[in-house]
Amino acid sequence: MSLTNKVLLPTQLPFLIAKRFRGKINIQRPKKPHFERQLLLDLAKPVYGTPKYKLPEVALCDRGEKRKTKEIDNPFERILANECLNWFNTSKMVIFLHLNSISMEDKTPIFAALAKNDMHLRCYGKKIISMATTGTRYEAVNHLFTSHQNIIFGQPEKIVTLFKIMKKAPQLIVMAGIIQDRLMSKNELVEYSQMQNIDVARSQLCAVLDSAGSSLVRQLTQGQQTLVGHLEKHVELNNASSEAPKDKTQTEPSQPTMVDP
Known about the structure:
Layout: H1 2-7, H2 35-44, H3 57-60, H4 75-90, E1 93-99, H5 104-116, E2 120-124, H6 126-133, E3 149-154, H7 159-166, E4 172-179, E5 182-185, H8 186-194, H9 198-251
Helix pairs in contact: 4-6
């Protein structure tokens, strides 16, 4: 080899050149694999049972017996259930949301805006909600859950701010809510958000009660005041009639008497 390199010029390209297969691959009738590969494919081939539509009705009938899967006690699920029940007990406003497809990039500003206004967005599954609310006064909310859903916990004073934030996230749809231990629909929540402040309502109630009391006092004393007015007018008329003759006698001049001569 060294002699050939000295006599002949060394080649820049190797003697073996890889060449791409230019023929067309037959997809419909592929080439059969070799024996070892075919053996591996046969061993790895899944075995399927008889489909249900081919089975007789006798084989499909379970005689009313349902197979029950053994439930595993998960301590972490119990911790989440206790946390969820604590949120229900400490929050006077609970809003249930229907979550459409939304990215975490769009959801993070909503989460931050709610947290800034003392509202907390949490996500729980149906099993956690069932564990937390079964046997409590919140058991009726289990019908709202089919899978993982988002819940907002807060105070009723923030409901106006909540609807303003929800306008920025059309993927989060308000379904229902609990206000002061009362389950409300979305329309009722909207009406509740449009109500005036509790202090204004209390002042209006006090004004109505005060007006009713003053009107009652006025109606009760109206007869007495009318009687007093009539008596005062009668006394004035009597005084005027008694003073009139005295004044007349004082004002008449004395006439001279005629004396016969």
